[in-house]
Amino acid sequence: MKIKEIRLFKGMDKSFIYHNEKNRFSSWHYHPEFELVLITKGKGKRIVGDSIDRFVEGDLVFLGSYLPHYWKCDEKFFLKGDVFLGEGLVIQFLPDFLGQSYFELPENTKLKSFLEISTQGSLFYGKTKKKISKLIIKMKKLNESDQLYELFNIFKILAKTTEYNLLSSHAFVEPYQSNEMIPLKKAIKYIMTNFQNQIKIEELLEITNMSNTTFFKTFKKSTQMSFKTYLIKLRVGYACKLLTSEPITVTEIAYESGFENISNFNRQFKKLKGLTPKEYRSKFEN
Q1: I need a surface site. Which of 72, 81, 113, 261 has the fewest CB within 10 A?
Q2: One domain, residues 164 and 179
């Protein structure tokens, strides 16, 4: 399934987009805008990056710039005569819609960190989900000025919340944008550009100027996972990207993603995704 760039219309008199989607949800696509999506009617399959899952009414997701995504409602929401029963509320804004420096302000450090993490997609839950959903629905009845002020309230919640799960893996979203892991940034950049090859720990120790023990402890503290797990997730994420975009065999994808043999690739892939690579490709293509 080829990915498309699909963008909602934004009038010249508006700085951001508030859209009530009542037509069929767009196919596999991306766009430069950040996007907040609340499903008000419908349930079905949700694809964000390399994450494939089910969604239901009330599903609330935040998407980073150029993160591929697709919501597909179940067949019962499509009636004869091109009638669609699904519905969603969407907010989109460009990174510079408030000016080049708004998200760079020192007071916006936490919000900026959230936006950087959103390159993987965030699925909200708990009180955060309830508060943001209530504001999005409220915006439906407001004028453009009041909608903007409510968006600032949403930003305030995003800056403080921890009630979300990341959806996609690092490797599916190619750019590495986080500035939070300062001591390891060079090492992670090296890993991101060389994960298809065998990475020697000695190279990473030299890059970070750390001892073996310090590197592994610091890496786990910064990424919340071991170096080995991080590398496997990176390779599996890249494999997902190839499975959904390239007409090559699973064996070719295994080696292209940095795995030395197909059996280890299948084992690690199923451990992380709950499906074999072939099943994953089949599910994605429906």
Answers
A1: 81
A2: no
What's the average model confidence in pLDDT over 82-86? 91
Same domain, 274 and 239: yes
Query: For 68-97, b where at least 16 C-beta lie within 10 A, e where not — what string?
Result: bbbbbbeeebeeeeeebebbbbbbbbeeeb
Instruction: Go through 106-140 and write b for each residue having 16 or more CB atoms within 10 A of its CB, e for each that does not.
Output: eebeebbebbbbbbbbbbbeeebbebbbebbeebe
Residues 164, 181, single domain; the answer is no
**What's the half-sphere exposure (Cβ side, CA atoms, 13 Å) at 149?**
5
CATH of the domain at 109: 2.60.120.280
Residues 258 and 276 in one domain: yes
Last residue of a domain, one of 168, 200, 217: 168
**Each residue's pLDDT tens digit, 29-53:** 889 999 999 999 999 989 898 888 8
When pLDDT is cut at 50, 70 and 90, the band that residue 171 belongs to is low
Residue-wise pLDDT tens digits, 145-167? 999 999 999 999 999 999 999 99
Closest by CA position to 89, among listed 77, 71, 67, 103 = 71
What residues make up the domain containing 130?
4-168
| Residue 88: strand, helix, or coil | strand
Are 1 and 244 a contacting pair, CB within 8 Å?
yes
Residue type, 57: E
| Domain end marker among 125, 150, 168 | 168
